[in-house]
Structures are given as structure tokens and as C-alpha cells.
């Protein structure tokens, strides 16, 4: 049916790639683009391997995507195209350490492949590269927002975030029971870079006693007070969720690039133990949050975003990032998408709700 319908239509050739850290739902977007673009509209879809690297390496690494390429992709974690967060065409790394600008090669290679434009799945870094590419080389791009961190501007949410929150919540649930058995403080560290969305959401969903996020510099004495109050009421265990980018009051904000070198959960656990006299343990969820199958919510969101990206291409509406606003599909300009990252709204309802049910953030009066 679809094949017959599109025989009379103009046939686009469109490239697709995935950039930055992987997350659940990337393959669900690729599948939606192939299903709508190739199977329904008759386009040729060319997958580029490892973000922009597949276009930049001496030998191109690209492949045409079809029905067979996306078999089982809806539920598959990671990305079938591969990814890298070191593949900036404007500062392309060489073995001798000297980065070179290969951005023009992106444009020429896409032309050689007969591609009208590119559908680029990525986070803030990828959107910034896409904006620069469209400005400086004229490459036509539709961006699709992904990241477990949920920190992209221009969209209410990103796919990958919900799956990460679901997993983190299960982890908090599991830590609850062992914390209670052993009368311990359990500290769980989650990813999120400079945004505390994952910590806030899994902390509320998992019934944490304290949530420490980058947006609220903390004083651990406030957290210790909470733990001791609980003890006085016969609750001998506590659950503390810490975002990897959280920092103590008065300390310098960390360089986001070096976050993976830190383990804030460990020091928070040790200090709280010292302050309260209660035994503590820490667990770092790290990359577990990025793996595994996408949640139902993320599969639906990824499919909607992939389908909407095709609608923009079909309408010739390039240089935009597809987005979700108030549960409706929409889009924003790449310049807006690349304008910075988002953080937790401290005046928002979820922070107020958390405080309302007694969760501390470490900024309470001591
Ligand atoms: O942006 C996603 C993310 O997983 C962050 O939460 C984390 O800080 C970072 O990527 C880790 O990146 P890398 O894959 O370079 O270690």
C-alpha cells in the first residue's frame, strides 16, 4: 500500500545519525523515521555511523536503512548506528592531538550521497554542532532531542529521561528495603550533569528523605538533622539521592566534563555517617541509567518525535528541532535549541511538592 502510494511522490534522500551519550529510545526514533520516511513515503534513508564520524573518516561509514535494519529496534537499548561525544566536525580530533575543522567535509559527503539533509538525534552538544553546521555550511538539519538528563531547552522533555527515572526509582525501592533491614543511611548517586531532574524525579517517586541537586548548593548539616529527626521518631534508616553535579555550599561549581571523575555519593555518605553516627553505604547508578530497554513512555515519545521529524522534512521545514510542548508535537529553531541547557525550576511544583512532604534539599535552616 505505502509502496504504491509513494511511487508518484517526490523521493527524498535523508541521512540520520545519533550523537553524544546514548540513551534508551534512540533506536525507536530511527525505527519511526525508517517506517514513516522509507516505508510510507518512499524516501531513501542513509544511516551514518558514530555520529558525524562516519562522514569524516577517510573511508565513509554509512549504510542504507530499510525494514530489515530496524527489526526489533523499538525495544532495543543503545543505538544501532553507534555514537560518540567526541565527534565535533569543527574540532575533529587527530592522533597527534591537533584538532582540525572538517565541517565542510560533512556538507560535501552528504552531497556525494545525494542527501537533501540530515535528521540528527542528540543532546545540547549535538544541537549546537547542528546549528553551527547549518549556519556555516548550509547543511539542512532537523534535530531530535535526546538525553537522560532532560536538560535540553526548547522542549518540555527528552526521550531517555523517563526510562532513566523508572530505573533509578526501582533502584531506590531496592535500597529502601536493605536500608531498613540494616538501619543504614543509603546514598544513591545518579547522573544528570548540571541538572537535577533525574535525582528530583526518582527521589520523589522513591520516597527519598533528602535530594541533593546541582541547582541547590547543600549544607550536609541540614540533611544530618533530618536523619536524626527520623531516628528520634523510630525511623532508623534514611535514603539520600545525590545528583552527580551537586555541590556543597561555598564550593566551586564543577566542570561538567570532569564529572565522571568524581564520586560525590561516597563523600556524602561518609560525612553523613560521621555527623549522625549511623552507618552508611553508597551506590552509584552511573551508566546503568543509560542502558536497557526504553520505557513505554519513551517508546511513544521517540516514535512521535521521529514521525514529526519526517513531517518537517516532508514540509521542507529544515533547521529546526522537533519538540514536545504540553503533550503536543511542535518544533523550535536550532538556534533556540542550541541556546543553553535547562535546570530544575526551584519555584516549580515538583520542588514545592517534595518540600511539602518533608524531603530536604540541604538548604534548610540549621
Ligand atoms: O549527558 C548524559 C550523561 O550520561 C550525563 O548524565 C553524564 O554526566 C555524561 O553523559 C557522561 O558522559 P560520558 O559518556 O562521556 O562518560
Number of DSSP helical runs: 12
Going across the biggest sheet, name each strand in turn: 3-2-1-4-5-10-11
How many β-strand runs? 11
H/E element sequence: HEHEHEHEHEHEHEHEHEHEEHH
Strand content: 15-25%
Rg, rounded, reads 22 Å
Uncertain residue segments: none
Global geometry: elongated
Helical amount among residues, as a percent range?
Answer: 25-40%
Structural class: alpha/beta
How far do the termini sit from each other? 68 Å
Main sheet properties: 7 strands, mixed
Ligand inventory reads: 6-O-phosphono-beta-D-fructofuranose
Question: Please, what is the average pLDDT?
Answer: 94
What does this structure look like?
The protein has 366 residues and is an alpha/beta fold. It is 37% helix and 16% strand. The longest helix is centred in the middle third of the chain and has 22 residues, at 161-182. The model has no long low-confidence stretch (mean pLDDT 94). Bound molecules: 6-O-phosphono-beta-D-fructofuranose. 6-O-phosphono-beta-D-fructofuranose binds next to loops. The site of 6-O-phosphono-beta-D-fructofuranose has 13 residues, from loops.
Write the layout of secondary structure elements.
Layout: H1 2-5, E1 13-18, H2 26-40, E2 44-48, H3 53-56, E3 62-65, H4 103-112, E4 117-122, H5 124-137, E5 141-145, H6 161-182, E6 185-190, H7 197-205, E7 210-212, H8 220-232, E8 238-243, H9 264-276, E9 280-284, H10 296-314, E10 320-325, E11 328-333, H11 334-337, H12 349-356
Parallel strand pairs: 1-2, 1-4, 4-5, 5-10, 6-8, 6-9, 7-8
Antiparallel strand pairs: 2-3, 10-11
Helix pairs in contact: 2-10, 6-7, 8-9
Bound molecules: 6-O-phosphono-beta-D-fructofuranose (F6P).
